Amino acid sequence: MGYKIPLFKLNFDEKEAQAAFDTINSGWISTGPKNEALEQMFIDMFHVKYAVSVTNCTGALHLACMLCGLGPGDEVLCPSLTFAASVNCIRYVGATPVFCDIVSPKHLNIDPKEIEKKITPKTKAMVVVHMAGFPAKMDEIMAIARKHNLRVIEDACHGPLSEYKGKKLGTIGDVAAFSFFSNKNISTGEGGMLITNNEEFAKKARLLRSHGMTTMSYQRAGGHATAYDIVELGYNYRLDDIRASIAIEQMKKLPGDLERRIAVRKRYLEKLANVKGVVVPFADCTEFVSNYIMPVVLTNSTKERRDAIRDKIHECGVQTSVHYPAIHRFSIYKDYKAELPVTEYVTDNEITLPMYASLSDADVDFIVETLDKAING
Ligand SMILES: *Cc1c(COP(=O)(O)O)cnc(C)c1O
């Protein structure tokens, strides 16, 4: 609030409001036809076999850990430069996160060399995050997974429709999670999607998202079933149809939204090329990506200097953020004693600049000039 240029703006118009209004007036607001339509959109647009809508990405990640059969005694490799949910989900099922460093300030995703180093006989799976929507090194990662018989969970929250060598992110590993939180590429307030090409996983995810019940209210209301059994210890991770109908409008806008973001990033790259003292992560990536956020990393810097630079930028009316405070430094993860020098440098020296479809060239120019002045005086 109060910033001339905020970090993010919703890509909403009357369509989202109309969709929610229509669903409310339809007489069916809980999980039903709008969720079925949304799941089908994911199947069609992501070229994946199964999609299961859920309350949020955190729920999808929890279910993904259950589907992969993870539990106490199992080790799961994960990055620390991510949102807490990517790691907390491992602990929900009693398994142990093992933090891996990222490649470099130019490539903020988990380092396959670190993955290989940290594999033990207890390692069962890994959570891979595609930072800012840029693909992790999936060829190397999938080769390691095959060699050591590990499951791969893709936290693809940042990368809806992002690609890696012709495949959509989230369709390369065993199972993937997406978020519809307000500031994501697809916004519904809260919401999420689990996708997989594994039929057993999809069936089990459907059970687990609704108490392990064999039928849902919508099916019973349709006269398809009158009784149900409870066959798994499930949860209530259902997405309601009001939110699903908003998600459908957001999905329709997504390809156009991403085209705009690509143009915004291009402008950023042109302007940032003349700014001394910053590297732009993934600057050489030529894949189609979602550009969820616009991170830059200061060179030869410290956390104190970064924080002072952010303060100067804020004084000029531009909002910034940090992606992310490293998970392994949080109180509940300190005992894991992870040593991640690259992650620690990036978490202390990263600045996230504004990124959204309606950001104009003039806005980008102003942001970069402001950054340049804050860094170089
Ligand atoms: C936003 C986010 C999540 C959590 O998503 P919710 O839908 O809010 O649960 C998990 N992982 C990453 C990388 C995220 O950015």
Radius of gyration: 21 Å
Cα end-to-end separation: 27 Å
Counting DSSP H or I runs of 4 or more residues, the number of helices is 12
Strand content: 15-25%
**CATH level-1 class of the largest domain:** Alpha Beta
Describe the structure.
By secondary structure, this protein is an alpha/beta fold. The protein folds into 2 domains: 14-251, Aspartate Aminotransferase, domain 2 (3-Layer(aba) Sandwich), CATH 3.40.640.10; 255-376, Aspartate Aminotransferase, domain 1, CATH 3.90.1150. It is built from 12 helices and 14 strands. The chain has a 7-stranded mixed beta sheet, with helices on both faces. A 3-stranded antiparallel beta sheet has the order 12-13-14. It has a two-stranded antiparallel sheet with strand order 4-5. Strand 4 (102-104) and strand 5 form a beta hairpin. Helix 1 runs antiparallel to helix 9 (241-272). The longest helix is centred in the last third of the chain and has 32 residues, at 241-272. The chain starts with 13 loop residues before the first helix and ends with a helix. The mean pLDDT is 97.
